[in-house]
Amino acid sequence: MPKRNNVRVENRVWNRNQNNDNRYNGNQFVEHDDRAENLGKQMIRSKNTRRVSFKPSGAGGTGGRQFNNKQKNLNMAIKATIDEDDDMVDFPVGLNRDGNYHRNPNARFRRRGSPIPRTGHGPPGMRKLISGTSGWFLVTIPHGQKYDKEYVLRELQTLVTPDPFIPYYVKVESSAISFYLDDIKIAQALLNGDRSISLPDGFKMMIKVRCSIPQVQIDANLKEKMKLAMSKRYTPATKALDLTKFHRDVDLKEVFCGLFRPTIMLAAIDIIAENIPDLEALDLSDNKIHLLDHFKCLSKKLPCLKILHMADNKIISPNALDALKECQLVDLVLKGNPLRHRIRDETVYVSEIRKKFPKLLRLDFVNLPPPMGFDIPDEISIPSPKASYLCNHNGADIVRQFLEQYFIIFDSNNRQPLLDAYHEHAMFSLTVTHNSQQGQRLGSYLPHNRNIVRIKDYDARNRHLKCGRLPVVSFLSELPATQHDPHSFAVDLSLFTSKLILLTVTGLYRDKSKPSENICSFQRILAIVPSGSGFCIKNEMLHINNPTMAQIKAAFKSNAPSNAAPVAAPPTTTAPPSMDDATKLQMIQLMSQRSNMNLEWSEKCLMETNWDFDRAAFVFTELNNQQKIPPEAFAK
Amino acid sequence: MDAEIKSKIDQSYRTAEDFTKLYYESLDKRRHQMSRLYLDNGLLVWNGNEASGKDNIQKYFQELPSSSHNVVTLDTQPIIDESTEFAPTFIIQVSGNVKFQENPSKPFQQSFMITAQGDKWKIATDCFRLQDALSLLERK
């Protein structure tokens, strides 16, 4: 949306019909009252003060409407002050002097349409530029295209000598030459020189100056240039990046890369986060930065940032710094910002800034005295987690064997052997935390979710409770194929008596029915009772949840044997005479583990020795010594 | 379904709902009364750390940072066995999110075994796990 800047220089009152230049139609010429919010306070004082009013103007029947317009304009003016992220910031400054009517086809509208008599304006030297929030000015030389560009620029240079004249992004257009300036002093000097230079064809050179921000498109090309410019400004030793006066970087001559513009700043932050995620010091001094809202992401993107220098920018309010609160800054520089003038008292200033950044040790290059505090720690840490807890160490072997056997069968293609693991009157139920934001990872479990927070009907709750060995195992058989990660297991044995064992297992598994996004987090609670010579499950509750990012990263990654999870220890039993699939699978895995062969060849080896583990191990050792085992047997 | 079993299951629902509400309200807001929820020889296993006996459990909770729990799922079953013949016993499983002090909230799972003692339900075992505590540990 086009937006209005707050700079009014002339006392001329613009009316919406009075577009003086077609290029700027429709995005300027608000009525006068926005000046109340403007920086041009002195203009208001010296000129049309009576127009600064929040009351509806009493001008005839249109009063109400004017009021609305005024309100709107005022709002927009306020918005403009707050939100300067638009390129078309165009308030004319010193345009359309009377003597130029013949050269400006639109000027005649003004004469006809203006309801308010012009109160006249001073000679060129009296017109004063007021710096907008951006601090950038667009200079236009109407009809300048008729002359040599270098010649025009040379002539302009004479107006500002001895100050340096640095025109940015010079453009020769169909009816004018235009360029940008970032220095109000130079811009003022040029404005004062309006129609003072005689051109070869007898005309006087017109010079128009107004507040405007150069436009730029953020694309891959620009990002590449920014990256290049940044890389030479980075000091790896101190992890410091100096982006002082970034737009003046020689590598960015062609494009306008002003960091005060949120989109550019965000692009810069992204580039830094991508390339120097551990950046500790950032210097953003002298970049005309006035908005900070978009800096909120800084603490997340650059978590190590401790030193931030923002001297000589245009930060007006200390409250704007709230956007940086999450950054753990120890060194901050704000000098040269307008906010410094707002708080005259040094002590108030320091305490105000410190409130926002409690860890601050240095402000504006001055070391701060240590802050006073209270003898209660800010943060209490939680006890560090342990992978397993056994209320009774005699239970360790039973738990280990039980879990080992259980998950080997559960992860196999056939869960029917689990019939032996469940009590005749076993109970089983399942709960799922479903978060639609995380996709359909757990969708297949949802129809069986017995979450009594959600399901209030007793019959429905009872339906989701599987009772009896057969219903439980047939239900388990229908759940997606899985592969559990024993290294992820947290095992808590919280009750171990001769009659009842209570065991909780928390960990990760992979849903083998899905090609991706298949890591799931689970917790099982098992109430185990003695049965014959062994044990069986009397009650089981299974909870399934989406994994956290940390879990996804850690899943199936651990190479070192987990020292705590009792289930991870290798089995020591040899195969019994008659074997089911689960036992075979267990042997294959053990064989693979001992021999370092892959599962396929381990199985082959065991099959050829009629599932005699010791013999298979012997044969393997023999053949391996003779180097008769092909390399593909070890390919995994 | 056996009528007796059904009545125990029905009883477990109300008990589990009331229990979790009381438990997390106490833990988050009235932590000083936590020990009253446990058997004298009750057991708390908190991320693998043990606190045994109601006094130790009370002490353990007092030293944890302030918390705010949000229960998302709840499930319960009665343990019907000769070992629980004279004292009705339920197991309860809770999952949800917990926020410690001003830290971001994290998923947790918790399992309880509660048992009747006179006219009061008491926690025999309480087993708490932050879902990704071990994964975070492994990365360090």
UniProtKB/TrEMBL annotation, chain A:
Transmembrane segments: none annotated. One of its GO terms (molecular function) is RNA binding. One of its GO terms (biological process) is poly(A)+ mRNA export from nucleus. Residues 51-70, 102-125 are annotated as: Disordered. Residues 582-636 form the TAP-C domain. The keyword NAD does not apply. Keywords: Leucine-rich repeat, mRNA transport, Nucleus, Repeat, RNA-binding, Transport. Its main location: nucleus. One of its GO terms (cellular component) is nucleoplasm. It comes from the Eukaryota. Residues 398-544 form the NTF2 domain. It is found in: Nucleus, Nucleoplasm. InterPro entries: Leu-rich_rpt (IPR001611), LRR_dom_sf (IPR032675), NTF2-like_dom_sf (IPR032710), NTF2_dom (IPR002075), Nuclear_transport_factor_2_euk (IPR018222), Nucleotide-bd_a/b_plait_sf (IPR012677), NXF1/2/3/5-like_LRR (IPR057125), NXF_fam (IPR030217). Belongs to the NXF family. This is Nuclear RNA export factor 1. It comes from Pseudolycoriella hygida.
From TrEMBL, chain B:
The keyword Membrane does not apply. One of its GO terms (biological process) is protein transport. It holds the Pfam family NTF2. Keywords: Cytoplasm, Nucleus, Protein transport, Transport. It is found in: Cytoplasm; Nucleus. Residues 15-130 form the NTF2 domain. It comes from the Eukaryota. InterPro entries: NTF2, NTF2-like_dom_sf, NTF2_dom, Nuclear_transport_factor_2_euk. GO terms for cellular component: cytoplasm; nucleus. Has a role in nuclear-cytoplasmic transport of proteins and mRNAs. This is NTF2-related export protein. It comes from Pseudolycoriella hygida. The lineage of its organism: Eukaryota, Metazoa, Ecdysozoa, Arthropoda, Hexapoda. The gene is Nxt1.
